[in-house]
């Protein structure tokens, strides 16, 4: 059974930092993708980051490049999203999600393809 747990959300002032962690189990990392997907009320779901277990390739949403970094430990099936220089528009529920690697579609376009979701962690950035 796939298990996903997201940790690290909270309330932070604009310009501050948060570190989100995803602890996962129940799947083979080398043929799956782990992503951080955020959902804000009234906004489209966005793939903030994703990481391929097979080759270590990672992706970051353009709007967070230079501010967020993604790292992973495949042996432990953990993915960490370090979020710096947070902006109010980053406010959302951040979900850790898993999908088998889709060879025909990049993980940045997995919006409706994620097979498994964690419970999410709320990130609120005040101005």
Topology record:
Layout: E1 3-7, E2 10-13, E3 18-25, E4 32-39, E5 46-52, E6 58-60, E7 68-73, E8 78-83, E9 92-100, E10 116-117, E11 121-126
Parallel strand pairs: 2-11
Antiparallel strand pairs: 1-3, 3-8, 4-5, 4-9, 5-6, 7-8, 9-10, 9-11
How would you portray this structure in words?
The chain is mostly beta strands and 127 residues long. It is 0% helix and 50% strand. The chain contains no helices and 11 strands. It has strands at 3-7, 10-13, 18-25, 32-39, 46-52, 58-60, 68-73, 78-83, 92-100, 116-117, 121-126. The strands form 2 sheets. Strands 2, 4, 5, 6, 9, 10 and 11 form a 7-stranded mixed beta sheet that branches. Strands 1-3-8-7 form a 4-stranded antiparallel beta sheet, with no helix packed on it. Strand 7 and strand 8 form a beta hairpin. The protein is globular and about 40 Å long. It starts with a strand and ends with a strand. The mean pLDDT is 93.
Quick recap:
The protein is an all-beta fold and 127 residues long.
Question: Keywords for this structure?
Answer:
globular, single chain, 127 residues, mainly beta, 11 strands, 7-stranded mixed beta sheet, 4-stranded antiparallel beta sheet
Beta-strand content: over 45%
The main sheet comes to: 7 strands, mixed
Find the structural class using helix and strand composition. Answer: mainly beta
Number of helices: 0
Q: Give the uncertain stretches in residue-range form.
A: none
Radius of gyration: 13 Å
């Amino acid at each position: 059974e796939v298990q996903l747990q997201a940790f690290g959300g909270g309330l932070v002032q604009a310009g501050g930092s948060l570190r989100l962690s995803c602890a996962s189990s129940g799947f083979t990392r080398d043929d799956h993708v782990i992503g951080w997907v955020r959902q804000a009320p009234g906004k489209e779901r966005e793939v903030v980051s994703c990481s391929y277990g097979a080759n270590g390739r990672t992706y970051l949403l353009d709007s967070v490049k230079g501010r967020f970094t993604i790292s992973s430990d495949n042996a432990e099936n953990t993915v960490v999203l370090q979020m710096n220089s947070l902006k109010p528009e980053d406010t959302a529920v951040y979900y850790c999600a898993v999908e088998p690697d889709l060879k025909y579609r990049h993980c940045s376009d997995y919006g409706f393809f994620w097979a498994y979701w964690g419970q999410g962690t709320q990130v609120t950035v005040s101005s």
